[in-house]
Amino acid sequence: MRRSLPWTLVLCAVLAGCGDDDPTGMGVGDGGADGSSSGDDGGGSTVDGGVALGTTFKLSGMVTDFVSGQAVPGQATVNTSGLAPAPTVSVTGASYQITGIAPFSVFHVLAGAAPTHRSTYNMASTVDAADVTGVVSRALGETTLTAYQTAFAVTPMAGRGILIARTLDMTGSARAGIAATAFQLGGQAPPHTPLFLDAARAAAPTATSTTASGYVVFYDVMPGLVTVNATTASGFTFSGPQAPVAAGTVSLVDLVVTAGAAQPPTNVSFSTQVFPIFTRRGCETCHSGNGIGRDLGGLTLNGSTTLVLRELTQELSPNYNITRVNKAMPEMSKLLTMPSFEQPADRHPNVTFASASDRDYQLILAWIKEGAKDN
Ligand code: HEC
Fold first, then answer.
1. How many CA atoms lie within 13 A of 233 on its CB side?
2. Which of 58, 128, 279, 318 could pair with 298 in a Cys bridge, judged by C-beta atoms 3.0 to 4.6 Å apart?
3. Ligand 1: does its nearest atom lie under 6 Å from the Cβ of 317?
4. What is the pLDDT of residues 263-322, one digit of tens each?
5. Is a pLDDT exceeding 70 seen at residue 237?
6. Is 262 in contact with 277 (CB distance < 8 Å)?
7. Which one, of 119, 96, 137, 79, lies nearest residue 343 by Cα?
């Protein structure tokens, strides 16, 4: 369903330097300086003495070849996943521009260029309260995929996808030496033994662990949202977002490798750790005042901690007739699911948490698991 959203967002709440004297009425960097911001209502009405923005943002970039980094030949195809309503995409050659993106959105760019380049899900892009430019999206060449299949002696199963993960250390450098046995997909052994790419991103059929490039290839991955995790026995933790996987496409994901088991947060305080998330991650731009989240979701996420706590743990949602925090099934809490990425997208207009590995997601989840206390 595509709904026309009245973008009367009060962004001053989360932006520095957004004063009453701002003559443009924008006050958000270059968000509207070139006249490209597209408010459904024309924007510009003043709320509470601040600047009400009828605005969305844009993201622009280029589709490049996974191996060479060169712009793909011909006309690229670009789609987004995880955003409803879907923003508008325009493509010129390998360059693309996505407009109409709700503030504080996370989404995946699916980039390709038939017939030379396979549709490839890139890592999630984030748009906060300014336009984003210069994004490099990568797509796997068909010749590269054929070369991989030949070198690895793999015949991909129909109806499955290919997932290519890159292991990184804490500083973002490729991490070599992670053995095939360390990898699981969603807590299960991968459907096909993990295979590796060498430093030049060519197939390394004899490698049994990540090389200097850090790349590991999974074939025959079931469509859905896939998490790459480390086996307990490996002694590692992989943190990275979930990757959307679809039949016949390639998905790219980065994993940060750390030693030891993951440490979920504990003793989480609502007032000092959870409540500030609603400002920091932009929730209150929509869930306050006349914002659309308050209007359509009946949910206020600013004001006093007591009020917000009541909205989350006592008040029943007008849309779902349940409380937005679900202590019995914490992960099912609307507070977590609405701003999270899922396929198909839910009714929420933006995505803030690309996956459950988001630190703020983990804080909220831990707080709910610990009883959603007023602490
Ligand atoms: C771009 C505006 C926008 C932002 C930013 C936003 N929301 Fe929302 N939110 C909405 C709208 C609109 C709805 C109502 C969707 C519907 O049901 O049609 C909603 C609904 C919800 C609901 C369900 C309310 C109900 O009872 O139906 C929850 C929970 C929620 N949002 C949490 C959050 C959290 C947490 C954040 C920040 C991480 C956030 N939202 C950021 C616009 C926003």
1. 8
2. 318
3. yes
4. 789 999 999 999 999 998 989 989 999 888 998 999 999 999 999 999 999 999 999 999
5. yes
6. no
7. 79
